[in-house]
Each structure stands twice: as structure tokens, then as C-alpha cells.
Write a structure and sequence with these properties.
The chain is mainly beta. The chain is built from four helices and 25 strands. It folds into two domains: 93 residues, membrane protein fhac (Ubiquitin-like (UB roll), Roll); 356 residues, membrane protein fhac: a member of the omp85/tpsb transporter family (Porin, Beta Barrel), CATH 2.40.160.50. It has a 16-stranded antiparallel sheet with strand order 6-7-8-9-10-13-14-15-16-17-18-21-22-23-24-25. It has a five-stranded mixed sheet with strand order 1-4-5-2-3, covered by helices on one side. A two-stranded antiparallel sheet has the order 11-12. The two termini are 49 Å apart.
Length: 461
């Protein structure tokens, strides 16, 4: 039936008339031992029994490959077309190489915001380690569902269960997510002094927290994602915490219990979600917490984030990002303070500081030059197909960050870096390995005339 040779979309000379409309007869999926076909077909613009011009095939194939790879379910994806014996029709062949989906692993981490915070501010105190077990099942039931379980003991005790169901309907647009988290510790951060959280500990539990959320998700297209979440939080601290910081909870309460409602929108056009070199990313969020609190406690948060990734040619890549956040009313209990210093909400060069405030603006810029991108088949050493392709890439980079944080009212105890322009610039090296794991080494100089070295995991933009 399929008598013609394989025609790859990159070879336009093999296609007789680029304006000719051709029919897509069948789409064949190869290599998906676990993943259901509908999960792959959901990410494709090429559809069975539709018509497309030959001039659009190359673009469609590149878009579909990127979309399928961005599910993070596969190591490699290839798409080929084959002319049918019937004139004016083709078949599409999608070949995927599945990743490893189950990761049981012992867990060792630190209780602090980042590695440099632990090394410098906490002097590398080994008593601040947490130990436990992380169980992650990606692509559960072959439907791209994710189930995570994390249990930790040590400096604090945590339990997390996170279950994400991307699609619950045949059209694959509506989904659900459930999160449950519990934490308790004798060690409590009760206040921030000069941008460094201050802890105390005793023989009794000083802090407990329980969080649960249920989210409804809606993905109407390849790139746009909506999420509405209803959450519940219960926080409890000891009498000692309230005595040390009467503003820890609202109205000097030992317990704080309330509901929250949030909306999150994402428009993601990146070529790689974990280490992007082209495309854009937009995120906008609205949140209100305090629903149901008996003393009328209330906190609303508005945040916006936009990143742009531009390939400049000759292995140079530019990344620019801006994010902002505002909370109101401005006066809040310490437990709900926000600001720069956690995860991606961090100005490079200020890893040691937690800069809290009712609103902030952060602008980040990175210019990267790819040094090498090396791949090798190592199936002779590792006879597991999901790990048979070794990869290591290196990018030299120059970066500059700018930030402004408005301090909370009457919060002079931690105000040295607020209400002023903060900046930093520096050089670094990004290493990207198998499964898009990113290791960052950075050396920076900041507006406080400080030089800092930082080691981080995960891309900065």
C-alpha cells in the first residue's frame, strides 16, 4: 500500500507543488510502550483526515515535535511522512523514545532557601539537613498523570502528596489536581532580621502547618493554560513564637485557619520548558486568602511574569524576563510576608538575603554562548533504553539583574535593601545534562559592593 519512499519535510525538493493540498490519511505512533496514543495526538497540529498544503508541512512538523517533547515524556521525537499510492494523500509516522517514568529516591536536602544561604548564613550546619524518601510516578496509566510522594524527617518533618490529572474528558481540555501537605518542627523562623530569617528551637513542637488544595485546569489550546484553585490552610505556633513576634499571625493568634481562592493563567511558547533558548512565557495570577477567617483577616495578591528567549545566531542566546508582585492591604502578619529570595523570585547576587515587601519588581537578563552540546549512545554501558543516550551541554553566560522592593509598614528591622534600586551583574556557566537537568555556577557583583559565588539547580530564566 505504501509504495513511495519516505519524504521528510526538510527536503522540499522532493515535494512537487508546495501549494497543493494533500490529505492526511493516517497517523501512526511508534515507540510508545506506555504512553497512550491520545496523549501524543493531543499535542499535534497534524490531524487524521484533514488537508494541509505541502508548504505548511515542515512548519507543522517542527511545531508538533516541540509540543510532544515539551510534555517531558520522551527523550527524542521524530516525525516523517510517507506518500500514499493514492495521489494527493500521505501517512504520518511519529516515532518516540520514552523516558523513565518512576523515580524512587532517597532524599537529602537542606531546610534553607538555597545552598549559599545554608553555607554562609547557617555556616554549613549539618543539623539543618532533612532526610527522607521521594517517590515520583510520571505518566501514570500512560495518560501523562503525575503522582508525587515526599516524606522527610530531620530539621523539620514534612509529608507531601501531589496528584495531577491533566485530562478528565475525551477532548483533553479539562483536568484536576490535588495537593496535601503537612509540616511540623521544633525549629521555627519567627522573624527576619536584616534580611536573614532568625530561628529558635526547643524540645517541643513550635510550628505546625497543614495545606490542601483542589484545582480545576483548562487547556483550550497547545499553549494556553487556566487554573482555578480552592485551598485550605491551618497554621499553628507555640506560645513562645507569639511572645517573640506578636505579629507572626493576625491579631496575635496562635492558630490561623482560612480558605483561599486563586486563578492562574499561563501562555507558554518556549521551545524547551526546562531550558528555553527561543519563544516566550507569560504568567498572570490572582489570589485571595482569608476566606472564612473569623476576624476578617484578608490578603490579596496580584502577580505577573513575562520571559522572552531570543536566538541571536552563532550559538548566542538572549533571555530577558520581568516579574512583579503586589499584595494588599500592605499591612500583614509575618506569616504571610512575601518578597525576593525564594526559588525563581531571586535577584542573582542576593542569594544570602530575604528581601520582604508588599510589592516588588524584578528584571533579569542573560546572554548565553553555547560552548558545546555533546551526545553519545551509551547503551553498551547502560542497557536501559531510557538512559541509553548521554547528553551534556555547556553555556557560558553574562547576566545582569535589577530589582526594587517596597518594604512593609513599620518593618525597620529588615529594611536595609528595600525602597531602593538593587542591581547585580556577573558571569556563569550553565550545564545541561540528561533529562534537561540544569546546574548553574555563577559569580556576581551587586549594588552592596559584595561579590558572591552561587551554585544552583534549575535554569535562572
Amino acid at each position: 500500500m505504501l509504495s513511495a519512499p519516505i519524504l521528510k519535510a526538510q527536503n522540499k525538493s522532493a515535494l512537487p507543488n508546495i501549494d497543493q493540498k494533500i490529505r492526511v490519511n493516517e497517523i501512526y505512533i511508534l515507540g510508545n510502550k506506555k504512553t497512550k496514543e491520545n496523549i501524543i495526538l493531543r499535542e499535534m497540529s497534524l490531524k487524521k483526515e484533514t488537508y494541509i498544503s505541502l508548504s505548511e508541512i515542515k512548519k507543522s512538523i517542527e511545531i508538533d515535535k516541540r509540543n510532544i517533547l515539551n510534555t517531558n515524556l520522551f527523550n527524542t521525537v521524530s516525525i516523517d511522512i510517507l506518500e500514499e499510492s493514492e495521489e494527493g494523500s500521505i501517512n504520518v509516522f511519529v516515532k518516540v523514545d520514552e523516558r523513565w517514568y518512576f523515580f524512587p529516591a532517597p532524599l537529602i536536602d537542606i531546610a534553607d532557601r538555597n545552598l549559599m544561604d545554608w553555607l554562609i548564613n547557617r555556616e554549613g550546619d549539618v543539623n539543618r539537613f532533612n532526610y527522607g524518601l521521594r517517590l515520583t510516578q510520571y505518566n501514570l496509566r500512560g495518560q501523562n498523570q503525575t503522582l508525587k510522594f515526599i516524606g522527610k524527617v530531620g530539621f523539620e518533618r514534612n509529608l507531601l502528596i501531589d496528584y495531577m490529572i491533566p485530562f478528565i474528558d475525551n477532548n483533553q481540555k479539562h483536568g484536576l489536581r490535588f495537593i496535601h501537605f503537612y509540616s511540623e518542627s521544633e525549629n521555627a523562623s519567627y522573624i527576619t532580621k536584616d534580611h536573614v530569617p532568625d530561628f529558635f528551637d526547643s524540645d517541643v513542637i513550635n510550628k505546625k502547618a497543614y495545606f490542601a488544595s483542589t484545582s480545576y485546569t483548562y487547556r483550550p489550546s497547545f499553549y494556553n493554560f487556566h487554573e482555578i484553585s480552592l485551598s485550605y490552610l491551618r497554621s499553628e505556633v507555640s506560645d513562645t513564637v507569639v511572645r517573640l513576634n506578636p505579629n507572626y499571625h493576625f491579631n496575635q493568634e496562635k492558630k490561623q485557619t482560612y480558605f483561599g481562592l486563586s486563578y492562574n493563567f499561563i501562555s507558554d511558547h518556549r521551545n524547551n520548558k526546562r531550558f528555553a533558548t527561543a519563544g516566550t512565557f507569560l504568567q498572570a495570577s490572582l489570589e485571595n486568602i482569608g476566606l472564612g477567617h473569623r476576624n476578617q483577616f484578608n490578603l490579596s495578591t496580584v502577580s505577573l511574569k513575562f520571559n522572552k528567549y531570543t536566538p541571536l545566531g552563532n550559538d548566542f542566546f538572549l533571555a530577558n524576563g520581568i516579574m512583579g508582585l503586589k499584595t494588599f492591604p500592605e499591612e500583614q502578619p509575618y506569616f504571610n510576608y512575601q518578597g525576593l529570595g525564594y526559588n525563581e523570585m531571586l535577584a542573582r547576587g542576593f542569594e544570602l538575603e530575604l528581601i520582604e515587601g508588599s510589592k516588588f519588581l524584578l528584571q533579569k537578563n542573560t546572554l548565553r554562548r553555547k560552548i558545546f552540546d555533546y551526545s553519545k549512545d551509551i547503551k553498551n554501558l547502560i542497557p536501559i533504553s531510557q538512559f541509553a543516550q548521554f547528553r551534556m551541554a555547556a553555556y557560558l553566560k553574562f547576566f545582569a539583574d535589577f530589582a526594587w522592593v517596597d518594604n512593609y509598614p513599620n518593618y525597620e528591622i529588615s529594611s536595609r535593601l528595600t525602597n531602593q534600586l538593587l542591581y547585580s551583574f556577573g558571569v556563569g556557566l550553565d550545564l545541561v545534562s540528561m533529562y534537561d537537568i540544569v546546574l548553574r555556577l555563577e559569580y556576581s557583583y551587586n549594588s552592596e559592593n559584595e561579590c558572591n559565588f552561587a551554585l544552583n539547580i534549575k535554569a535562572d530564566l
